[in-house]
Specification:
140 residues, mainly alpha, 61% helix
Length: 140
Amino acid sequence: MFDLTSSKLLILAVVALIVVGPKDLPVLLRTVGKYLGVIRRQAAEFRHQFDEAMREAELDHLKKEFENVSREVRATMDAGARSIEQQIDAASVKPEAPKIASAAAPASPPPSEPLAEAAPAQPSPAAPAPDKTEPGRGAA
């Protein structure tokens, strides 16, 4: 902004010496230094407040990003929990009893029949006695 070289500073000092005089020049330089210090402190304070405002804005931005990520994680966790619950519900369905009965096990009587009817009947005396051959081999 201001291009102050050594030659310009020398000209400025000579003009100040002529205008103010040698007696009041130290007082003038002290006053100018004091005001420059005040201006520098105010500039530093302004810069500090500006930086602080920028940090707060950045923190607000980071806070919003964190909340968005938190919401996304929570939604993902809820979706995963629902999926697991659906899989558990699907796995906990009781399967129906098999409809094919094995040849070795006799079929159980329906529950509506009385037990007395399900018992094997005694052979009648007129019926011939069964063969005493080995099971699985026919009479040959």
